[in-house]
């Protein structure tokens, strides 16, 4: 069966509830929460941006808050991962997830994530990424979803595997990243594989 992402475009960002999280479009009001992890070396070690001061983080958050619709190749949606309070009241943003439409014709989407390191090991990233994959496959109609990960980033490598993504290959020393030659691992999952992995 041949299908295209284009059949379901455009797609607008909207709130997605999981057991413990609210995934919703990032807003300028999230800037302080985003700064709380963008300013930590361990959070940005394997991400393509430097440590940011408060103003740089605010500007970056404002720019990314505008990414709310997939209509054309290279469009993006950025979702904040909010941890609501016990009675459902708004809570802090503990991370964010990126969805990029790489090719509408070939139904290819890439995803990425960053979470506050103080909360690592609690399953929040897995819960959020599963919800994003469900959104990407069911609402966008993706055929293939991939993530590009530095192989030294063992938590993200483990997350890809928990999501049922397979390692498709490693590009060896493919770029100078933060002053050193770095490898890039590509993990991916197809729509039919996601049906089995859920």
Automatic annotation (TrEMBL):
Top-rank taxon, per record: Bacteria
SUPFAM superfamilies: Acyl-CoA N-acyltransferases (Nat)
Alphabetically ordered keywords of this record: Transferase
A GO term, aspect molecular function: acyltransferase activity, transferring groups other than amino-acyl groups
Key word Ribonucleoprotein present: no
InterPro entries: Acyl_CoA_acyltransferase, GNAT_dom, N-acetyltransferase
One Pfam family this sequence matches: Acetyltransf_3
Positions of transmembrane segments: none
PANTHER family linked to this entry: GNAT FAMILY, PUTATIVE (AFU_ORTHOLOGUE AFUA_3G00765)-RELATED-RELATED, N-ACETYLTRANSFERASE DOMAIN-CONTAINING PROTEIN
Listed name of the protein: Protein N-acetyltransferase, RimJ/RimL family
Annotated organism of origin: Cryobacterium psychrotolerans
């Amino acid at each position: 069966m041949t299908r295209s992402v284009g059949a379901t475009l455009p797609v607008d960002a909207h709130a997605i509830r999981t057991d413990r999280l609210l995934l919703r479009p990032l807003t300028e009001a999230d800037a302080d929460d985003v700064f709380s992890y963008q300013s930590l070396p361990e959070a940005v070690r394997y991400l393509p941006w430097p440590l940011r001061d408060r103003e740089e983080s605010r500007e970056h958050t404002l720019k990314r808050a505008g990414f709310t619709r997939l209509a054309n190749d290279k469009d993006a949606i950025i979702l904040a991962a909010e941890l609501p309070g016990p009675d459902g009241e708004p809570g802090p943003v503990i991370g964010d997830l990126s969805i990029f439409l790489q090719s509408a014709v070939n139904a290819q989407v890439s995803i990425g994530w960053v979470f506050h390191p103080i909360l690592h090991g609690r399953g929040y990233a897995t819960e959020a990424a599963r919800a994003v994959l469900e959104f990407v496959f069911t609402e966008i109609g993706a055929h293939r979803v991939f993530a590009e990960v530095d192989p030294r980033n063992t938590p993200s490598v483990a997350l890809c595997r928990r999501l049922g993504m397979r390692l498709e290959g490693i590009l060896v020393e493919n770029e100078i990243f933060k002053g050193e030659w770095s490898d890039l691992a590509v993990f991916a999952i197809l729509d039919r594989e996601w049906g089995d992995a859920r």
